[in-house]
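Researcher: I'd like a candidate sequence for this fold, 201 residues long. If you have to choose between options at a position, lean toward the conservative one.
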């Protein structure tokens, strides 16, 4: 399955945000990567700003170009504000839901757990990271995977993350999507309107 495998610190420095997780590089070098990173940037065009926002969303959710375009197309065909629906679809991905529940410390780790068949949806193994979780569905850890160090560490260190659209049962190591998240509840620093404008060109 295709995914970004390049340097994480470089991406974080490009956007000056911990896009792919916390990075010490941001503390040491809070400027863009490359030999001209320290020099003052010229003003970006409107298109460049919109493209940058789309790239940031892709890196955050671990989605490549074709899949992102497909998700946007799906969002345009649903009722509601396209930008908000786009983020809801990205948030509903199984790998992202596993991450939000605190089962994995990062989306990359969550994706790996899904691919390696450690995650259940309604009691059945699902190993497709892009699987779209629907309200009412339960996401849990396989019985034989509950003692995995990576999972127990993630839950003990961070605990189940608290989001209003998700429930978590620590005893059963199982979560449930109550409803799709509202835009105000999604913590990611993304200006989805810029993405909508980019695809509308």
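Model: Candidate sequence:
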């Amino acid at each position: 399955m295709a995914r970004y495998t390049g340097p994480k610190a470089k991406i974080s420095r490009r956007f000056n945000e911990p896009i792919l997780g916390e990075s010490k590089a941001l503390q040491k070098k809070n400027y863009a990567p490359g030999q001209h990173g320290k020099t003052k940037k010229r003003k970006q065009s409107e298109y460049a700003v919109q493209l940058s926002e789309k790239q940031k969303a892709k890196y955050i959710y671990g989605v490549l170009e074709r899949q992102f375009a497909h998700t946007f197309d799906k969002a345009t065909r649903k009722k509601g504000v396209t930008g908000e629906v786009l983020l809801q679809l990205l948030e509903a991905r199984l790998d992202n839901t596993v991450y939000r529940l605190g089962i994995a410390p990062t989306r990359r780790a969550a994706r790996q757990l899904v691919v390696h068949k450690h995650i259940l949806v309604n009691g059945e193994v699902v190993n497709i990271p892009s699987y779209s979780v629907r309200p009412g569905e339960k996401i849990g850890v396989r019985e034989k995977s509950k003692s995995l160090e990576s999972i127990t560490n993630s839950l003990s260190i961070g605990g189940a993350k608290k989001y209003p659209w998700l429930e978590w049962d620590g005893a059963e190591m199982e979560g449930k999507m109550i409803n799709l998240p509202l835009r105000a509840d999604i913590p990611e620093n993304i200006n989805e309107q810029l993405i909508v404008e980019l695809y509308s060109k």
